[in-house]
Write a structure and sequence with these properties.
Elements: E1 6-7, E2 32-37, E3 46-48, E4 51-53, H1 55-67, E5 71-76, H2 82-87, E6 93-94, H3 102-105, E7 109-110, E8 115-124, E9 139-143, H4 147-158, E10 164-168, H5 171-179, E11 185-189, H6 190-199, E12 204-206, H7 212-215, E13 227-231, E14 234-235, H8 240-255, H9 258-266, E15 267-268
Parallel strand pairs: 2-5, 2-6, 9-10, 9-11
Antiparallel strand pairs: 1-15, 3-4, 6-14, 7-14, 8-11, 8-12, 8-13
Helix pairs in contact: 1-8, 1-9
């Protein structure tokens, strides 16, 4: 499913959250699905009026409550340890703009994809960096445990090892480092980076050019893409029944137009 890639402001109404009755990790007898998520990561998840909001909470509302009849609650969890926390029973599923990868699939099971993203490079407006090769000898910022960090590692290898990678606990910290000239670029998901670029368009920009999306014949965004990635909801390996329910619900909201309505609230284009 091809997705549009321009960001729309996250200043939309938050999806209603049903927070009552949560039973810890949300076992099979729980009427509330507890969801692990690294907040903030706008526009996918962020706090608004003291509650989680964004694309993922809106999808959770449509899938778990509207389609499956569950209540749900979000539990803020560091992305670097979120899979281990899931498998420790801290919550029932992960919804945190998580890319489906072979390495992660060895530890968790994923739903069918519900979003397509691209790894991109954001730099300062006055930067001399206009293509990947210009990053040779520079430092880039990434969030720990993300596929952005993996894309940076691949780029480092492409540049013969001449790239410094600085890992931060949150993507906000990585962008703060960029704005304070502590790194020369940030490598991260396109829609999340677009949130920071759009709010700081006098200071930040994307590196442009053809990349992975064009090479794969995808509907490419107007900037360089390092990878193509699909997001999924993550489940423990023994939670097949819920995963199948969620896949059916995702298919339904895509078919009946609910998905596109939610998408249009958080993204434009």
């Amino acid at each position: 499913m091809e997705r549009r890639t321009y960001l729309k402001s996250t200043g939309t109404a938050a999806a209603a959250l049903a927070m009552a009755g949560c039973l810890g990790g949300g076992g099979s007898g729980s009427k509330t699905i507890s969801i692990g998520s690294d907040i903030p990561y706008p526009p996918f998840e962020y706090m608004e009026n003291g509650e989680p909001a964004g694309f993922d909470p809106a999808i959770a509302q449509a899938v778990f409550t509207d389609q499956l009849g569950y209540e749900y609650s979000f539990k803020d969890t560091s992305f670097d340890g979120i899979i281990q926390a899931l498998n420790n029973g801290n919550f029932r599923v992960i919804m945190s703009a998580m890319t489906i990868t072979e390495e992660r699939a060895e530890k968790v099971d994923f739903s069918d994809p519900y979003f397509t993203a691209y790894q991109t490079i954001a730099v300062l407006q006055n930067s001399s960096i206009d293509e990947k090769s210009d990053l040779k000898g520079k430092a880039v910022g990434v969030q720990k445990g993300t596929t952005g960090a993996g894309a940076a590692e691949a780029l480092k290898e492409e540049l013969g090892g001449d790239l410094t990678i600085k890992r931060f606990d949150t993507i906000a910290s990585a962008f703060n480092a960029l704005l304070n000239n502590q790194v020369s670029a940030v490598i991260n998901d396109n829609t999340v980076s677009a949130e920071y670029v759009s709010k700081n368009d006098d200071e930040l920009r994307f590196v442009e050019g053809d990349g992975a999306a064009v090479e794969a014949g995808r509907e490419a965004p107007p900037y360089l893409t390092l990878t193509i990635e699909d997001y999924g909801i993550a489940f423990r390996k023994d939670d097949d029944e819920l995963r199948k329910e969620v896949n059916d619900a995702l298919a339904t909201i895509k078919e009946n137009g609910t998905y596109d309505d939610i998408y249009s609230e958080y993204f434009a284009g």
